Amino acid sequence: MACDAAAPLYPLLGLLFLIMAGSALGSGKPTPEWQISEWINGEGTSLAELRGKVVVIDFFQLWCPGCNSFSGPLMRRWGEKYRHQIEPY
C-alpha cells in the first residue's frame, strides 16, 4: 500500500535527480567521458561517437509504476514525432 501512495512522486524524484546531476556537472563544462561496452540489442558506443547528436538516456525500472506510466509513453511519443530524425540504439 505504501508503495502505491508514493508512486506519483517517482517522476518528481527523477526530475530532482536530473536537476542535481546537471548542477553537479556545471554549465559550460564538457560531459564526462563514458563508454557502453554492450547494449542488449547491439554493440556498444562511447560518448565521443555520439558527439554532436542529441542523446536521450532513459533510466527506468519495469516494476516502477511512475516509470511505466510516464517514461514509456513519453519515449513512444518522441519516437513517433521525431522518427525521421533519430538513430535509435
TrEMBL record:
<dbReference type="InterPro" id="IPR036249">
    <property type="entry name" value="Thioredoxin-like_sf"/>
</dbReference>
<protein>
    <submittedName>
        <fullName>Uncharacterized protein</fullName>
    </submittedName>
</protein>
